[in-house]
Design a protein that fits this description.
The protein has helices spanning about 20-25, 30-45, 70-85, 100-110, 165-170, 265-270, 305-320, 345-355, and strands at about 10, 15-20, 50-55, 65-70, 90-95, 115-120, 135-140, 155-160, 180-185, 190-195, 205-210, 215, 220-225, 235-245, 245-250, 255-260, 260-265, 280-285, 290-300, 325-330. With about 350 residues, the chain is α/β, with parallel strands linked by helices.
Length: about 350
């Protein structure tokens, strides 16, 4: 079994540090994000075998859980083997360490001897990287690449934390970087499956990291079995299981719209709407006849009558008759979860409250 006490040396922004030196370096920075890295490293170097981690709150209230440091190292090992990290490879940290993705990037640097380049988390992290910089590996949220047209400084990009918007995925086809999308959650200590988004080997299906296997329950929700998990995790993610190591993601069971007995996955509808330039999502609204009806929610001010005519024409061409939205609602600014994802249920409730008067 790995001993977390053996991992205490880190190269940050070109400076090789060990133990307390890392904490002092981070805490001496005026940047809050660097100070937070120092707080996490202090926790990592402490005597407790556990680390406190906050869940993202994608489908509920964020909560704090405790994870074993040795399990984090085992997860880091799986990622290192998949991407074939070499000691001295350069990795970018542009994610907050308040969530698992940022924490795991620090642990991967500890484990693999990666040289960590730390920049403040932002909506356009590429702007904070010098054009002459060579980055071997960089994790981002999809939202961080929305304003980016290319990232030639980065060899491999790992996206996670949210589904890929169809327009973003289309844009990523022209990136010079290799782009991957990870599937995972706080409880699985970041990703446990990956799919290639662009270039050679791109795929619609997610493939398990080494040692991870999959199954499904009676609702076709994914069951994850990984070497570092104490027990299987039954997710709320509905999938098409291709084998015990690969699947196609369909959507969250929490969001499934049951309209007259037909189950509709909002996430699948959203893939078809690459023509929308604003943020949007589909959700079910109460319907006396069908139980639920498909509705489209768009961020921002309402469209003009002329633009609505064009939108309805686009929707009719993109979706079948069962999937077309019965109503379209505009919300000036979407509610988000603590980790920056669209909070579907909260936004839906805003519209419901307005309709109730």
């Amino acid at each position: 079994m790995m001993n977390y006490r053996n991992y205490h040396t880190l190269t940050i922004n070109g400076i090789r540090l060990s133990g307390e030196e890392i904490i002092q370096y981070c805490q001496s920075s005026e940047e809050v994000f660097m100070q937070q890295i120092g707080i996490f490293v202090k926790e990592w170097l402490g005597e407790s075998p556990l680390v406190e981690v906050r869940t993202s709150g994608s489908t509920g209230i964020p909560k704090l859980i405790w994870v074993e440091k040795v399990k984090m190292l085992e997860s880091a090992n799986m990622t290192a083997r998949y991407f074939r990290f070499q000691e001295g490879d350069t990795a970018l940290l542009a994610l907050p360490v308040s969530y698992i993705a940022g924490k795991m990037m620090v642990i991967r640097a500890f484990y693999s001897g990666l040289h960590l380049v730390c920049i403040p988390p932002s909506g356009n992290p590429i702007a904070g990287i010098d054009e002459t910089e060579n980055i071997d590996f960089a994790p981002f949220t999809p939202m961080q690449l929305e304003a980016v047209t290319d990232a030639p400084q980065i060899r491999r990009i790992l996206l996670g934390g949210a589904p890929l918007d169809p327009m973003l995925e289309q844009k990523l086809q022209s990136f010079t970087s290799e782009v991957y999308h990870g599937f995972g959650m706080t409880e699985t200590l970041s990703h446990i499956a990956l799919r290639k988004v662009n270039g050679v080997g791109k795929s619609e299906s997610y493939r398990a990291l080494e040692g991870v296997t999959f199954d499904t329950d009676e609702n076709n929700c994914l069951i994850i079995d990984a070497p570092f998990l104490e027990e299987e995790i039954i997710t709320r993610d509905v999938v098409e299981l291709l084998s015990d190591t690969s699947f196609i993601w369909k959507g969250r069971i929490d969001y499934v719209i049951n309209s007259g007995g037909i189950k509709i996955f909002p996430e699948e509808l959203e893939k078809a709407l690459s023509f929308l330039t604003r943020r949007f999502f589909f959700a079910g609204m109460p319907d006396e006849r069908f139980g639920e009806r498909v509705c489209l929610f768009i961020e921002g001010e309402a469209y003009s009558d002329e633009r609505m005519i064009v939108l309805h024409d686009q929707l009719n061409r993109a979706l079948d008759k069962y999937s077309r939205p019965r109503d379209i609602y505009f919300i000036p600014s979407f509610q988000e979860t603590g980790s920056g994802k669209i909070n579907r249920m909260a936004n839906r409730e805003i519209v419901l409250s307005n309709l109730r008067g």
